[in-house]
Specification:
The protein is an all-alpha fold. It is built from 11 helices and no strands. The protein starts with a helix and ends with a helix.
């Protein structure tokens, strides 16, 4: 279905909701700031998919079954086939990244985006769109100089924050069962914790071989 098919009402079931959604969007822009409307739309889009993914993962963890991504088919589909036209490379990459965040391919990345959107929504309530543009212009001419002066301190701080985030990501992913772990548990395989668990068995076998040779 192309854009002209929407305008010509070829399929009223698809054109009607699009028309109503556009009217509601314009109504929101009329009464609220652009930042507030966009951030709340992102919240409404991200929260249901994130909660659904977490519920599926929790259910798989409780039942000790394999956990497949609930939106796997949508993530594997081709963007251009869904849009119905060829897209420039940067647009295609941008849409793929938006789809990856929206469909919760990585839980941690989606939570990060949701946290940023939540913070920006408060900014939208305090400042208008034009005020944020002024602040962005001032930041454009001040942040690079600030970074150039305090570059080493910023790098040390970002390294510490990245280590903390990596630790949090590891702990979160530990609660999400993977296919390899579940299949190994079904077959009854148990991975040794360290080399000390294997070495006594090897030493026992070598002693028995030496006794057989001496006899």
């Amino acid at each position: 279905m192309t854009f002209m098919d929407i305008l010509y009402w070829r399929d009223p079931k698809k054109t009607g909701p699009i028309f109503v959604a556009c009217l509601l969007l314009l109504y929101g822009f009329h009464h609220f700031s652009v930042v507030t409307v966009v951030t709340y739309l992102l919240k409404i889009s991200l929260l249901p998919t994130l909660l659904f993914r977490l519920v599926i993962s929790l259910k798989a963890a409780l039942t000790k079954t394999e956990c497949e991504h609930p939106f796997k088919d949508a993530l594997d589909s081709n963007i251009e086939s869904l849009v119905g036209m060829s897209l420039p490379k940067f647009v295609k990459v941008m849409l793929q990244e938006c789809r990856r965040i929206l469909l919760v391919e990585d839980v941690v990345d989606t939570v990060k985006v949701l946290a940023i959107v939540h913070v920006v929504s408060y900014l939208g309530e305090w400042f208008s769109g034009i005020t944020l543009l002024f602040l962005g212009l001032v930041a454009l001419f001040t942040i690079p100089k600030f970074y150039d002066v305090y570059k080493h301190e910023i790098h040390n701080m970002t390294d510490k924050v990245s280590k903390v985030m990596e630790d949090v990501k590891t702990r979160i992913l530990a609660f999400i069962p993977t296919k390899s772990k579940s299949s190994a548990s079904k077959k009854g395989f148990k991975e040794p914790k360290n080399v000390e668990e294997i070495s006594p068995a090897l030493e026992k076998d070598s002693d028995e071989e030496q006794k057989e040779k001496m006899s």
